[in-house]
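Dear Dr. H.,

I hope your travels went smoothly. While you were away I took the liberty of generating a structure for the chain from your last submission, since the lab meeting agenda had it listed for discussion. I wanted you to have the full record in hand beforehand rather than looking at slides cold. The sequence, exactly as received, is reproduced here:
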Amino acid sequence: MASALCNKMSLRAPVRVAASRPARTTRVVTRAGLEPYLQVCSGTAIMLALGRFAFMPLHRRDLRNSAAAAGPKTTGDTYFDSLQQEASFITSTNDPAGFTLIDTMAWGALGHALGFAILAATSSGVIPGVAGP
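The corresponding predicted structure, in token form, is as follows:
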């Protein structure tokens, strides 16, 4: 009898099982301050314009000044001397300033990086005065 009484008595409070209800879900909506494609396109356009009109004359002037001291001098007598020539499609251009395919890809990549940085800053609210999420 004592063992039965000890088994039924407990110091713990009775556990009540609550009716299960669905968990509350919250929706997180990410919004950019401006349209993302506008920011990336404007960043790319800005960097291409800077590269073409601001930095290209400076770069070409530096290349002319350092061309005399750059690279090994070859006479063109051996087979390997003919392999050292640059690819013509990379260096040839119809642009008056000499903006080549490599320059376009490099400045475009920098422009995309600038556009995504602007997009991240405006979306996160880092830039004051620009509406974030």
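Two observations you may find useful: The longest helix spans residues 36-66. The chain has five helices and no strands.

With kind regards,
E. W.
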